[in-house]
Sequence to fold (212 residues):
Amino acid sequence: MGNLKENASFFWNKRAKTYDEQVLSIYENAYKKTVKNSIAFLKKEDKVFEIGCGTGVATIPLSKYVKEITATDISANMIQKARKKAKEKLRENITFYKGELTQMEIDPESYDVVVAYNVLLYMKDQEEVIEKIHEILKPGGIFLSATDCLGRNLSKDSVKKFWKSKLHKMPYVAFQTPINLKQNIQEKGFEVIEAINFHKNPPNIFIAAKKK
Fold:
């Protein structure tokens, strides 16, 4: 398991250099919709925890709408780029940490909102991650996610990721359907209050869920 995580860190460190150019060329519109829809669930006094912040594509714009964000990623290079952006935008309410949620010591019921954008599909321990999210959220807290569901439609992107993952050229990739993803979240003690697709193929499903 340790090797798997080390390989994932290595992969995302390498991707950090070209991540914005490659990903935003395809998903820029989906990211904009994700940020816009997330804002509706945020309050100015909220403490937010972000899993897989990457280069801060969502972190930076969302920081305007909350009290503070603790943004985490397993890639030091991704965090370095995100920190630079935050500094340029004078966003002082974001704290960046390198680390993995399930390995962190976080007091239960510490956060108002937890967000995970375009990261759940790369987590082999997805169920454990969702359990931890439930644990660190306050009662009635909100979990926001956006996730490619590669198991619904056979796309060029999903086929490429399948083979790259099988050949160990990239980390684990989940092939869930939107229904599978929604059920996983519901089974861990959440009420799904919104589910929208923001990308045609593969489907990029935005989910807003409330801790029961």
Notes: Residues 52 and 73 are 4 Å apart (CA to CA). The first helix runs from residue 2 to 15. The two ends are 32 Å apart (CA to CA). Helices lie at 2-15, 19-39, 59-62, 76-88, 126-136, 156-166, 178-187.
